[in-house]
Design brief:
36% helix, globular, 13 strands, alpha/beta, 5-stranded mixed beta sheet, 301 residues
Length: 301
Amino acid sequence: MYVIGIDIGGTTVKAGLIDGTKIISKLSAKTDTEHVMKVVAKVLKELMAENNVKASDIKGISLGCPGILRQGVVLLSANLKLSNCNLLDEMEKITSLPVIVKNDGDMAAIAEYGLGVGKGSTNMVMLTFGTGMGGGIILGGKLYEGQGGAGEVGHIPLVYGGKECGCGNKGCMERYVSCAALSDLAKEMLSEGRESILVKEDKIQASDIEKAYLAGDEVAKDIVEEYTNRLVYAFTAYSNIFRPDTIVVGGGLVHAPEIVNLAIEKAKAIGYGYKGAPPVDIKIASLGNDAGILAGAVLFD
């Protein structure tokens, strides 16, 4: 039997048909923040039709969504227009199959811990960088959810009175270290009028910034220097709070591995937070952007 994993992102809704621990088919659609569940239903229906899969062939469906979730209810999603939305009930209206709903960062953490680079860890922190910044926390081999909403690593305050965040607060971590924040930083530096092979556009991809950096572009060098310094703050913050065996870096930032590796080296040079502290193994996620989908393979194993 198959499992279907669905990952709702701020930009894209992705779904994958899983056989064992392998994704054998994927579909995606642009996220419509006004009609999120309509997009989910459409992608699910098309994925099953394309693969000639019936409901009786499906063991269960995992659904990951950004925001604060409790027992399948989205209390608030900063990057989606969802509040007090019962995704579990909504999914039951779409299908009569078993459904597990969790925060998208938690889903990525479950997948990397069970199938990826976090395998073998006892305590692991997952950091996902995309439109926003999410994550998940594995303590003692189990997902830590607190009262619901634990693991919202992107909304830890970083700068007092800083940039406004979609969650309603100011100065949140994600406003400085997400991929969107990296794009904003690049646009700010390109606005200074210096010559660069980078082109100022609405969204500047992390991978394009990395290419320019490796090509010796001076503006890109400054962007990467500033951004990696910020990233070190994130790495050291979570190292100090949790002192995990492993921190896993996922999301869109995995497409710029040299930028991530530079930040890892900087974190290592300052002792992962404080001198004499036990080291933390900071790794780039092995499952890439598929982690949120593959959580289903672990949850319905």
